[in-house]
């Protein structure tokens, strides 16, 4: 069976969606009140043979928004000092500007019509991104307002694991627990995991559709 080259494209593979991997480190679990402290982002591309791979990376330390809550237990868990001047932190609005600019360019190049957030336990990261968009008054953004690709759910189906570290290890990916709970590292490992899950389905003969 001959394969149309468009079958090996992000547009065809994900129904016009441009997947963007995001990991957010926060000062609590409430997206409306608790501060975003770090954002890690990976864009993806599909090579000429249809294999999904990491493309570019963005990483930002974020200044807690005015009036935000900082939960001590969250800080103890992720070991981030929100007020350390050496963090080089920027505002939510600045970070979102850089992210949206990169995503919009990627969507245009890949001929996709909307971006979709890929994350581990994706509703958490999606909720924080949407809350930040609302706070900053940004009118247009590239992300789907409610749909996501959740690597925890996909890993539960494919690997029988839902924790990021255990999912990566079950998929044959290296995972350093000492680097975990950094937005940069966790977004990298989530991107690798998502690529492996998508590519494994291809290796098993599930894509392109026959």
What does this structure look like?
The chain is of the alpha/beta class. It is built from 7 helices and 5 strands, in the order H-E-E-E-H-H-E-H-E-H-H-H. It has a 5-stranded mixed β-sheet with strand order 3-2-1-4-5, with helices on both faces. Strand 4 (114-119), helix 4 (122-136) and strand 5 form a beta-alpha-beta unit. The longest helix is centred in the last third of the chain and has 21 residues, at 183-203. It starts with 9 loop residues before the first helix and ends in a 7-residue tail after the last helix.
Trace the largest sheet across and list its strands: 3-2-1-4-5
The rounded distance between the terminal residues' Cα atoms is: 8 Å
> Structural class of the secondary elements?
alpha/beta
- What does the main sheet amount to? 5 strands, mixed
Low-confidence stretches: none
Strand content: 15-25%
The best one-word shape is globular
Q: Please write the string of helix (H) and strand (E) elements.
A: HEEEHHEHEHHH
Helix coverage percent: 25-40%
Counted by DSSP, the helix tally is: 7
Oligomer: single chain
């Amino acid at each position: 069976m001959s394969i149309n080259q468009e079958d090996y494209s992000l547009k065809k593979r994900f129904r016009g969606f441009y997947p963007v991997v995001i990991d957010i480190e926060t000062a609590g679990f409430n997206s409306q009140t608790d501060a975003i402290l770090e954002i890690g982002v990976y864009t993806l591309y599909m090579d000429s043979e249809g294999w999904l791979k990491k493309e570019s990376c963005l990483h930002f330390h974020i200044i807690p928004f005015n009036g935000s809550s900082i939960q001590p237990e969250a800080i103890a868990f992720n070991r981030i000092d929100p007020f350390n001047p050496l963090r080089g932190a920027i505002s939510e609005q600045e970070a979102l500007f850089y992210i949206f600019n990169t995503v919009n360019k990627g969507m245009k190049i890949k001929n996709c019509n909307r971006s979709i957030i890929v994350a581990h336990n994706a509703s958490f990261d999606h909720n924080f991104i949407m809350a930040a968009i609302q706070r900053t008054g940004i009118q247009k953004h590239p992300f789907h307002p409610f749909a996501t690709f959740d690597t925890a759910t996909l890993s539960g189906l494919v690997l029988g694991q839902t924790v990021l570290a255990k999912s990566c290890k079950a998929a044959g990916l290296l995972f350093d627990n000492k680097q975990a709970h950094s937005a940069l590292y966790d977004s990298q490992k989530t991107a690798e995991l998502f690529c492996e899950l998508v590519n494994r389905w291809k290796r098993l003969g599930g894509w392109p559709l026959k």
